[in-house]
Amino acid sequence: MAPGERRKREKEQRRKTILKAARKLFFKRGYNPVTVSDIAKKVELSKGAIYLYFSSKEEICAQVLLDDIEKFHGEVLPIFEGGAGASEIFAEFAHMYVDFFLKDRELFRMFMNFMLHANNLNLPDDTNKRIIRETNKAVSVTENIFQYGIDKGEFTLRKEDIRTMRNTFWGMLNGIISLHLFIGRESTREERIRSNVNKCLGIFIEGLKKTE
Prior knowledge:
Layout lengths: L2 H27 L6 H7 L4 H4 L6 H20 L9 H18 L1 H13 L7 H27 L10 H19 L5 H25 L2
């Protein structure tokens, strides 16, 4: 292996190690309390060395989120392969989304904070481009479900209304998770999230079938 190629691989491995350590710290202690110095200590590097790979803690957070979201997309894509109806696909997608954030709750807090403040984080151009790319993947999946339902005659939704209904769908899911994930009795949070998602999803899908 050429020296240049070896250094490139070593740099990429170090970058992955930093992200892995940051992810563990964020999920264990919460995003806000963790500092770049904490991450550096975890991977036994100097704080300055961290900045050779990332411009800020916000960029580290963005990369952690994007890596996880990319994994989620990989898990979601096969839902079209089973030949199920659009309603069933919607339900499966919603449940996979809920499961994704119930598994690592701090990830959802980070995700919501990131989405609310993404324009003010001064992230590098390549990170911003990846954000657009990964966001478009999520958008395309939901829009494809709507289109699939229209093509199969299951939804009477007009094509020009797909974007509005897509936004409604995402708002419903994220709103329910936000409402119950960190508030109320711990023992009933997951049950309340799943119950409300099922009820709202049923109403939502019924409306899609009746829309003229």
